[in-house]
Amino acid sequence: MTDFGVEDDHFLLDGRPVRLLSGALHYFRVHEAQWGHRLSMLRAMGLNCVETYVPWNLHEPRPGEFRDVGALGRFLDAVGRAGLWAIVRPGPYICAEWENGGLPAWVTGRFGRRVRTRDAGYGAAVGRWFGELLPQVVGRQVTAGGPVVMVQVENEYGSYGSDRVHLEELADLVRRCGVTVPLFTSDGPEDHMLTGGSVPGLPATANFGSGAREAFGVLRRHRPRDPLMCMEFWCGWFEHWGGEQVVRDPAATAAELREILECGASVNVYMAHGGTNFAGWSGANRSGPLQDGRLMPTVTSYDYGAPVDEYGRATEKFWLFREVLAAYREGPLPELPPEPVGLPGPVRVELTRGTSPAAVLEALGDPETEESGVPPTFEDLGVDRGLVRYRVDVPGPRQAYPLSVTGLRDRALVYVDGVRAGVLTEEEHTLEVPVAGPAEVELWVESLGRVNYGPRLGEPKGVTGGVLHERQFLHGVRARALRLDAFDVPGAVDRVEFGDAVEAGPVGLFRGSFEVADAADTGHAGLELPGWTRGFVWVNGFCLGRYWSVGRRRPLYVPGPVLREGANEVWVLELEEAGELFVELGPGLPAG
């Protein structure tokens, strides 16, 4: 029986010191059919371990409704077959630039600021979730012949709070669920983070992108006998829609990796392969030192400037990291697997059929609510990703007054008496043209991603304040939700009544088809939408994620296994202004 433990500032495998050379690869950001290839790439780079978070909201979107929790187990089995160890970080909060930091919207909606504390109700919800999840880990620990060597308790808790009782309760819960491998915490290398986020008796690790000696010096002050480990070596960074791309020089980043290893430490490269935020699961951040400013939603690509890019290819950073890591591995490193082949192109896909948002809502939406005194939030309606149509009447007769929305999160397309009147945002929340009464107002509101980090974690979405006409609140609001996962139901889109795309108008759902001759040999494609504004795209029912015309444009990543030999179908849900009625498929971005 294999044993993994911690003793005298070393990790031990069967009593012998071992160094973990790990890389982050999130199973939920990579198509399952591509796990094996990506894991082989990590091993060829010189890693002996892989790390993954687990997003609670992906697997329990509504209370007691568990979806494919076994995906984690299947991934860990793939890790074992690849000859790697595994570190599992189940949260329950994970950050990860993921919607709501991995917490289900129903959890933050129910418990509010009591999440991530010792609150009994929150603890009970976590207990039920871990009771469902952790059997996937327990049977795959190294002591049972599996790959799992360590499990994290919470995540960067010192960046959020100081409730040690909560952390100790979580650690006890993980143990009661049967996890026997070492538990650990991870935090930034700062005194307040390490004191707020660590647990007595559990190894503490540090997260940073540079300055290893200084970072480990801080860690040593707090934990003089723990093994040194950088649990997140940030070799790149993520992007926000409309924000600047952060690029890390490959040579300088490789030098930082070498410094970590020269300190005698273990490392987890974050990210080794980033993947993609499919299906609108991207999170968001807030600007400002207290994260209380402008909302900054995260883009669909999670390439992260990783050594293995979004398309599964080796970058310059990969080869430099491989050279550094080779000095810390015995024997020659494995050869790389074959590089994925892109779809020949470009292939122009004409979108010939289309329909209005109202028709989509009628076919796939939830029932409309009764009139209410205040608009229900997304949380009130049980919506995580998607949009909500709010309807409210302006009484009359009355003169034209400014119409505004307080507490709008995040973006609304507004109609007055069926005529488009403008787009409102959190910052620009008043229509340019005043509205006279009587009139009917429609607000089509979309969440652009919930905050995943900082004190604004769990803030609600939708109309969280009210609709104002001059200074008067308009009451009697009706709301109807269109959940993004309604499109996942087989045959659901076939219930939508389509007509000619040209006659459908500038917003709505559009569809078209194309042929693929050699789908089995295609590793990936890139999909572009010239002139389109904002919405979501599906290929053969698989949601590629959100597109948006702001900032740097890049194709949406299409996993090769999504494509089919022969006929394939594309759906585009445009929420503001459609471009010409076609999309383009091709090999995607060149290797970088």
From TrEMBL:
Domain (Beta-galactosidase galactose-binding) ranges: 509-568
Keyword entries, A-Z: Glycosidase, Hydrolase
Xref: Gene3D superfamilies: Galactose-binding domain-like, Glycosidases
Leader sequence segment: none
SUPFAM superfamilies: (Trans)glycosidases (SSF51445), Galactose-binding domain-like (SSF49785)
Residues of the Glycoside hydrolase 35 catalytic domain: 11-327
Domain Beta-galactosidase 1-like first all-beta: 375-476
Record Pfam families: BetaGal_ABD_1, BetaGal_gal-bd, Glyco_hydro_35
Transmembrane segments: none
Enzyme class: hydrolase
Catalytic activity of the protein: Hydrolysis of terminal non-reducing beta-D-galactose residues in beta-D-galactosides
Documented EC number(s): 3.2.1.23
Protein family per UniProt: Belongs to the glycosyl hydrolase 35 family.
Protein name: Beta-galactosidase
